[in-house]
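Sorry to interrupt, but I need a hand with the structure work. Go ahead and set the record down below:
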Amino acid sequence: MIRHTLALALLPLALGAQPNFDTITVRVTPVRNGVYVLTGAGGNIGLSVGDDAAFVIDDQFAPLSAKILAAIATVTPKPVRFVVNTHWHGDHTGGNENLGRAGAVLVAHDNVRRRMSTGQLVEFFNRTDPPAAPGALPVVTFNDSTTFHLNGDDIVAFHVPPAHTDGDVVIHFRKANVIHMGDTFMTNRFPFADLSSGGNAAGIVAAADRALAVCDAETRVIPGHGTVTDCTGLRSYRDMIATIRDRVRAAMRDGKSLDAVKAAKLAADFQARLSGPSNVNADQFVEFMYRSLTAGDGRR
């Protein structure tokens, strides 16, 4: 029986808004060679199908689990064998307990289980999320990388330096030539660097660089939010974040305060190209970058 428990987290909606899950349609779109993307509410779900099993990346919200499983069943009769979480936020892990009850093995970075096991203050939203139910916790965790040999592919999940959070992983389908970036990449909005979860806005550049190192002209890239793109789209996004980083760093070296840096509107020229719904505006992202560079060594 699917349980309808939910801790809302980081929806691309106005703060405090809750979607009517009854009206949400989960759609399945082919990406390449047995890899699909599922969209509904929350982060983009990755799906690999083949002779072995269904392999899933992220699982949105608990009330959508039945719809997600039904959507998967339209492309494969195989059960979901693994769910990999790209990070701990509830719009990517909310279905964990339900899919675990359905037989999936939950997998994530060590820091994802650590954060889900305890209450988390998300400073940006001034919200404390309670500990996840025991059945929602990843049962397999890793520190650096792990590889799944499944559906005729080698699927590599690798940890990247702190970016969106401190538990971000990127998943590379080597043979299908598809990369799932989680929330280290969003095609249509400024990224959210959850500093209270160990995130670092400058690390978004490093995460993109790790993915770009395995890219070629045919690679398809699934973002955490937004539409599927290619490595040119990922590089363009990476360069935007790097430009903002360099501008903020230069202003900091000139001794400017956070208020002065925000007043300089160092990211305003990128606002027009980011049309998606977001909780983060240009000034807020500049603050993420300023605080990240203040806390870190600034070399990312």
Notes: The domain at 21-239 is CATH 3.60.15.10 (Metallo-beta-lactamase; Chain A). The radius of gyration is 18 Å. The longest strand covers residues 153-159. Residues 1-16 have pLDDT under 50 and may be disordered.
